Amino acid sequence: MKIHRADPIVRHRYDRLGSGILDRWFLEGQRDTSCHNRRMFDEDFARLFSFENRDREDLFVADCNDQSTLDRLLFGMSGQRPSRSTNGRIKRVVEDVAQTLIRYGRAYYFWRDDCQNEGISLTPIRPLGVFRLLGSLVQWVPPRTSWSNSEGEQEFPRELRFLDESAIMLFGLPTVLKKALSRQNSVLSTLDAHLFKESEFLPQPTHENPNPVNYFNFSAWNEMQDKALYRATVATGWNGRKTDSVKQSDFFVGHRLIRFRRNQLILRDSILKQLGDELTKIGSRYSASFAVSIVAAEELPSIQELDDLERRLELEQIDFAELVDCCLKN
User: What are the boundaries of each domain within the chain?
Assistant: First the structure.
């Protein structure tokens, strides 16, 4: 195994057949296992902006002392889908970072000079295999092969790369969301593992008894799964896309919707704060005094507004239709 200080590998092919125990532990142990409930939650929670705000140009306020450097950084971070406006680029970055954070709990972008992209390239790094060792950020790279027309197929050994953190943008989940998602996702993964397993409880016909009586209670099975889902999602407020269930009152759905939306805003504001700090770190390479701070505009919903909405709901001063409009249309 080769241990050295180097730039991270952004993309590489992972061959499970040729991998060792440590490769599987580092890479497959962190591998995403989204299925059904996990996938639905990830999709719902990552929608930080409503459809009505999709093309607005006043979503964020970026306080920056060098607009040209900020535009270059955001353009390089947008990859193959850059937007023409600063607000559009920030929105694209926030959405991409949110999806990665929800899926893996952390997100990384690697900086390097790129003459084809106005001199700056900020490329996302897949979090699998990236971790801290002795206080340093490292990347575990399994044995791999590559092909080139000049040299043909080349084989590379296993590597442990120590990364330069000054050239990497790091994003993490807020502590309150990290704990909530950890508890919830462990239950959702268990529910997904037993999804549609009720068919295994059906008695098998035999020659002596071709039509066996089925005593399995499907209603009790479904009710047990619903209870487990609702208990696991108390902290996040996710309703499992079951808003039409007769088991839920409007009051229950309203409180869940406010809690879910509040967590989304916590994630949005956290990403914007980290984005400003990380862009300042990378931008200081081009201008020593460069600094940027990014916050949500007043037109976007705030946590304070949701707190007031929850208070009005408890006092029965708002109906369900108005509550849904306030939560979903902003």
Answer: 2-14+21-33+46-175+291-296
Please give the full DSSP string across 87-140, using - where no structure is assigned: HHHHHHHHHHHHHHHHHHSEEEEEEE--GGGTT-EEEEE-STTEEEETTEEEEE
Residue 97's nearest CA partner among 281, 272, 247 is 272
CB 122 within 8 A of CB 76: yes
Paired with 171 in beta bridges are 107
Distance, in Å, from the CA atom of 327 to the CA atom of 227, rounded to the nearest integer, reads: 25
pTM of the model: 0.85
Q: Are 94 and 275 spatial neighbours (Cβ–Cβ below 8 Å)?
A: yes
User: Across-strand partners of 62?
Assistant: 294
Distance CA 260, CA 256 (A): 6
Helix (H) or strand (E) holding 160: strand 159-162
Q: Give dist(CA 286, CA 288) in Å, integer.
A: 7
Q: 3-class SS at 326?
A: helix
pLDDT tens for each residue of the chain, 330 residues long: 788 888 888 766 555 545 667 776 666 555 555 678 889 999 999 999 876 666 677 789 989 988 888 888 888 887 656 667 888 888 889 999 999 999 999 999 998 876 655 567 888 888 888 888 888 898 888 877 776 667 667 777 788 889 888 889 999 999 999 999 999 998 998 888 887 777 777 788 888 888 888 888 888 888 888 889 989 999 999 988 876 667 778 888 889 999 999 999 999 999 999 999 999 999 898 888 899 999 998 888 889 989 999 999 888 888 888 888 887 766
